[in-house]
Automatic annotation (TrEMBL):
Ranges of residues in domain Rhodanese: 68-155
Organism encoding this protein: Desulfuromonas versatilis
Entry protein name: Rhodanese domain-containing protein
PROSITE patterns named in the record: RHODANESE_3
InterPro entries assigned: GlpE_sulfurtransferase, Rhodanese-like_dom, Rhodanese-like_dom_sf
Source species, domain of life: Bacteria
Length: 166
């Protein structure tokens, strides 16, 4: 180890030790799921910066592009009654209070975008998913904003592309 550290600057040593410590603590806590979640969330918060702030958000215009390209799944986390009353037919419907029990329904190969009418519950869901190591995002303008972007020809075009993906 002395040889490795001999070639690093003090700032590089500090960063290496910080990353090593985070990795070690995460591995130690993996045996206890609740602690692992806490460690992942704690690490996310400790490393939170402007890039993370931008990366956790997605606008309805961008999410439509991601959905059209098959790169994302929209998760409607509203209550069942809200989902039954109205909402996007193409969204995966998992109410927020059912999310912990239904994590296995989320695809591992797509960006998970949580959504509710505005964004309060979507942020809670996104934070929970990130605590589980899932790099989720939330819909910044909510389902209300999504509806504004799916009108007329835009809706027809979007649904046509989704049908072609199947």
């Amino acid at each position: 180890m002395a040889d490795l550290f001999g070639t690093l600057t003090s700032k590089q040593k500090e960063k290496w030790m910080k990353n090593f410590t985070i990795a070690l603590l995460t591995l130690l806590f993996l045996g206890t799921p609740a602690l692992a979640s806490d460690a992942v969330l704690e690490s996310y918060i400790q490393n939170y910066g402007y890039d993370a702030r931008l990366e956790m958000k997605v606008s309805s215009k961008k999410v439509l592009d991601l959905l059209e390209d098959g790169k994302a799944v929209l998760v409607d986390i509203r209550f069942k009654e809200e989902q039954e009353a109205w909402g996007p037919s193409f969204a995966l419907k998992i109410p927020l209070n059912e999310l912990p029990a239904r994590l296995n329904e989320l695809p591992k190969d797509k960006i998970i975008v949580t959504a509710c009418p505005h964004k309060d519950r979507a942020i809670i869901a996104m934070t929970y998913l990130r605590s589980k190591g899932i790099p989720a995002r939330y819909l910044t303008d909510g389902l209300i904003g999504l509806v504004e972007n799916l009108r007329g020809d835009a809706a027809m075009y979007f649904l046509k592309l989704l049908r072609e993906q199947k």
